[in-house]
């Protein structure tokens, strides 16, 4: 037991001293702590400048437009992945959900003669259902998200191959609406596909919900400290279930972007997207421990990966080294996150 | 600090008006372990009731019964003399009983205003709020600042600061401000000074006095006798799952309180 009397020392002097004692490095740590998307922004800026200096074709509008189209699918999946990682979860099944939705759409149109809009709607419903299943297993059966989504990754991948028979449905059979996301139009010197616009709209809508609504705040709070959120009256399970379900809806919608990009409904397109989406989120500065990060960072992270792959290719670097560099980026990003999290008051 | 009303008379003999919160014969067992063995408790308007007791005396279980975290096996709670049952913490919150947990229950990465309004966010007026569900961030910040000022908390200045950048005492202040802002009946503080330094403890004790001055009764659970004797109007001594005595800082010394707590003295 400690014996104390009521004290009344001036509080500000010591705090001011603390303020002054900060080194430039500590100040950087504080700034990054407030705005975690600044580190991917800096990396992206430097990368764009350097790759342009190495090969000036990199800066050409046609090439930059291509980078955007290349990252659109992973960037879209990363929206859902960000929501899940913000709650301190992880989803290994994002690509599998998207591919399942894709082959369901292809199957309905080619084998059942369904109209494109109906097939798309069913595909999105299938994605939402898969997300709901993940969320149910995480919140009701209380399994760790890593294990749940590892399981559904395998299950959904198998179902997708069973439904499709491993065969792609070409874009010519799918019709105008489903391949609409692959059509492009000029914006100044750039060429933008409709798919890229769909992805940007997705970022705008989900970004608004995260920043401006109580639901978004609860997503952060649950990932930050689930027990504190529960004590504050937030229904943690309801928030988690909503996050996994909305993520599933996003993955279903991404199937549309994938069909436009690939020009077909294929069970083999985008298989590496599961881990690529996590890469984008992590490079974007969102913490794997939950509660910290932003959708803007994820967008920057997805573009950064695309810029590195494209820039290294234009610099004549072997494709294996591109993968190697992305791996280094991931580890560096997590290391920076760990350092930021150690910020002192 | 000023002497509380009825300081010269032994507790229980002074008319303090009807209790805001009253517990009658609370029993809670965990298997063969008896947590509470028929505990009575009452909190009157505008008083600080301290609950002291040795480890295992049933302090935590008692508090959990009052705040809905634990449902007692037997016994009855009365709020403003009307029977009431709490099945979940949310029930107690809805009834106006706010708790500051020892763990503080704050989200470190969120800012102060967000934490004060966590789970009770306010939306903007008009279409922006009703259709687009937009939060009234500026309004919540202003009102959070107002609530913090009203409690006389000077250590917190910037409502947009994240909680993890605050010291232990400042975090405590945020949690207390939240409880005071929404607790319309009773504020329960569980070991509010346990993790704090001397200066910060003093701030929390002053805040408790501010709460009492505003007319809000406070239940204070603490191991720290000097703190208890500094702010409490009455002290509920819990021992072996029962209420051993209710004393006041004026009628008993700290040594006597500890004696009742440990069973060396029978109390009363």
TrEMBL record, chain B:
Q: Which InterPro entries match?
A: AAA+_ATPase, ABC_carbohydrate_import_ATPase, ABC_transporter-like_ATP-bd, ABC_transporter-like_CS, P-loop_NTPase
Q: Which GO terms describe its molecular function?
A: ATP binding; ATP hydrolysis activity
> Pfam families recorded for this chain?
ABC_tran
Q: Which Gene3D superfamilies match?
A: P-loop containing nucleotide triphosphate hydrolases (3.40.50.300)
According to the entry, every stretch annotated as the ABC transporter domain falls at: 21-265
Keywords on record? ATP-binding, Nucleotide-binding
| UniProt xrefs under PROSITE patterns | ABC_TRANSPORTER_1, ABC_TRANSPORTER_2
Q: Where does the record locate the signal sequence feature?
A: none
Read off the PANTHER family from this record. Answer: CARBOHYDRATE TRANSPORT ATP-BINDING PROTEIN MG119-RELATED, SUGAR ABC TRANSPORTER ATP-BINDING PROTEIN
Name of this chain's protein: Fructose ABC transporter, ATP-binding component FrcA
Give the organism the record lists.
uncultured Quadrisphaera sp
Question: Source taxonomy lineage?
Answer: Bacteria, Bacillati, Actinomycetota, Actinomycetes, Kineosporiales
């Amino acid at each position: 037991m400690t014996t104390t009397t009521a004290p009344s020392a001036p509080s500000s002097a010591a705090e001011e001293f603390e303020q002054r004692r900060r080194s430039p490095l500590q100040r950087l740590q504080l700034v990054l702590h407030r705005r975690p998307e600044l580190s991917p922004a800096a990396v992206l800026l430097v990368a764009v400048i350097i790759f342009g200096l190495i090969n000036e074709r990199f800066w050409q509008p046609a090439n930059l437009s291509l980078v955007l189209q290349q990252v659109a699918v992973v960037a879209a999946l990363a929206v859902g992945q960000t929501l899940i990682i913000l709650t301190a979860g992880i989803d290994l099944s994002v690509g599998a959900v998207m591919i399942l939705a894709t082959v369901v759409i292809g199957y309905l149109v080619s084998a059942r003669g369904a109209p494109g809009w109906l097939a798309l709607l069913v595909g999105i419903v299938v994605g939402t259902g898969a997300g709901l299943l993940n969320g149910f297993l995480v919140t009701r059966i209380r399994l760790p998200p890593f294990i749940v989504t590892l399981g559904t990754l395998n299950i959904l991948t198998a179902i997708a191959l069973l439904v499709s028979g491993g065969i792609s449905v070409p874009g010519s059979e799918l019709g105008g609406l489903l391949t609409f996301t692959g059509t492009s139009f000029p914006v100044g010197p750039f060429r933008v596909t409709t798919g890229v616009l769909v992805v940007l709209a997705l970022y705008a809508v989900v970004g608004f919900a995260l920043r401006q609504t109580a639901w978004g705040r609860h997503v952060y709070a649950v990932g930050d400290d689930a027990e504190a959120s529960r004590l504050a009256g937030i229904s943690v399970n309801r928030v988690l279930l909503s996050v996994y379900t909305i993520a599933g809806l996003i993955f279903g919608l991404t199937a549309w972007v994938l069909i436009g990009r690939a020009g077909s409904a294929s069970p083999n397109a985008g298989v590496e997207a599961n881990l690529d989406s996590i890469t984008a989120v992590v490079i974007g500065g969102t913490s794997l421990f939950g509660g910290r990060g932003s959708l803007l960072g994820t967008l920057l992270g997805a573009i950064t990966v695309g810029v590195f792959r494209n820039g290294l290719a234009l610099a004549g670097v072997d494709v294996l080294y591109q993968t190697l560099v992305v791996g280094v980026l991931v580890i560096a990003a997590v290391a920076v996150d760990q350092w930021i999290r150690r910020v002192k008051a | 600090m000023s002497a509380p009303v009825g300081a010269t008379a032994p507790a229980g003999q002074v008319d303090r008006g009807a209790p805001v919160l009253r517990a009658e014969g609370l029993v809670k067992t965990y298997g063969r372990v008896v947590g509470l063995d028929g505990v009575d408790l009452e909190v009157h308007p505008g008083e600080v009731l301290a609950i002291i007791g040795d480890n295992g005396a049933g302090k935590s279980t008692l508090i959990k019964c009052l705040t809905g975290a634990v449902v007692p096996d037997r016994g009855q709670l009365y709020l403003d003399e009307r029977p009431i049952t709490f099945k979940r913490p949310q029930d107690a919150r809805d009834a106006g009983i706010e708790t500051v947990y020892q763990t503080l229950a704050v989200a470190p990465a969120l800012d102060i205003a967000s934490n004060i309004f966590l789970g009770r966010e306010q939306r903007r007026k008009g279409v922006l709020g009703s259709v687009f569900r937009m939060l009234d961030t500026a309004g919540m910040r202003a009102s959070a600042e107002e609530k913090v000022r009203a409690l006389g908390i000077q250590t917190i200045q910037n409502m947009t600061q994240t909680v993890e950048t605050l010291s232990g005492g400042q975090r405590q202040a945020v949690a207390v401000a939240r409880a005071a802002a929404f607790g319309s009946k009773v504020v329960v503080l569980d070991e509010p000074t346990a993790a704090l330094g001397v200066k910060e403890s003093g701030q929390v004790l002053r805040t408790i006095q501010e709460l009492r001055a505003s007319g809000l009764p406070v239940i204070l659970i603490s191991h720290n006798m000097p703190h208890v004797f500094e702010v409490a109007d009455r002290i509920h001594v819990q021992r072996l799952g029962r209420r051993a005595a209710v004393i006041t800082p004026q009628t008993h010394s700290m040594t006597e309180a500890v004696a009742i707590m440990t069973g060396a003295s029978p109390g009363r």
